[in-house]
Write the C-alpha cells for this entry.
Amino acid sequence: MLCLMSGLGIGMAIVYVLDLLDDRFRSPEELKDQAGVPLLAMIRRLSGSAEDGLNSLHVYASPSSVETEAFRTLRTTLAFAGQEMQRVGITSSEPSDGKTTVIANLAVSYAQAGRRTLLIDADMRKPGLSKLFKMRGSGGLSDVLRSDKAIPELCQQRIQSAGIEELDILPCGPKPPDPAELLTGSRFSDLLAWAETQYDQVLVDCRP
C-alpha cells in the first residue's frame, strides 16, 4: 500500500510539474482566456513554395484554396472589428513566425477586394518583405525617414508596384544603423498620415 500511494503521489507530482512547464496553447479558447486578446482568424501552417513574389502567395497563386479563405476571413474580421483599421501593423513574438507571409497575403486580399493598399516594410534589420518581392538594394523607407525633403515627393519616387492592381510597396531601403530611432521619430508618423490620404489600407510589416 505504501509503494502504491508513493507511486501515485510521485506520478501526480510529475504531471503537475509538466503542466506548469508546458506553455503551449491547446485550443483557441485557451489562447483567448490566457492571453486576454480576441482571436481574429486561424491560419494553418502553410506549405513552402519554390516561387517568389506574388507567385509564392497563396491568395494570389491559389485563390480558391482553404489557406486563401483564412486570409479573407482575417480581412473581414478586421473590417468589422468595431474600430478604425485603415492602418494596421503586424508583428510576431519571434523571427520566422510567419508575420511577413501573413501581411503579404492579407495585402493581396485587400487589393483583390478593390481597396488601394500600401505595404510598408518597417523591419529594417531583416526585411523579409523586400526580399520576398526582390526589392532589396532599392530606395525605400529608411531614405524617407532620414531625409529632410518632403515626404510625398520621396514616397512617389520610392514606392513600387507589387505587380498586381491596387497594391504598392514601400521597401525597407538601405539598412540604417539606428532603425529604432527612425521608427519612433515624428517623421514616421507623418509618413503614415500621408499614406492614409492616398490609400484605403496601410499595412506595416514590423520587426519581431
Summary: The longest helix spans residues 2-21. Strands lie at 87-90, 117-121, 160-161, 167-170, 201-205. The two ends are 54 Å apart (CA to CA). The chain has a mean pLDDT of 89.
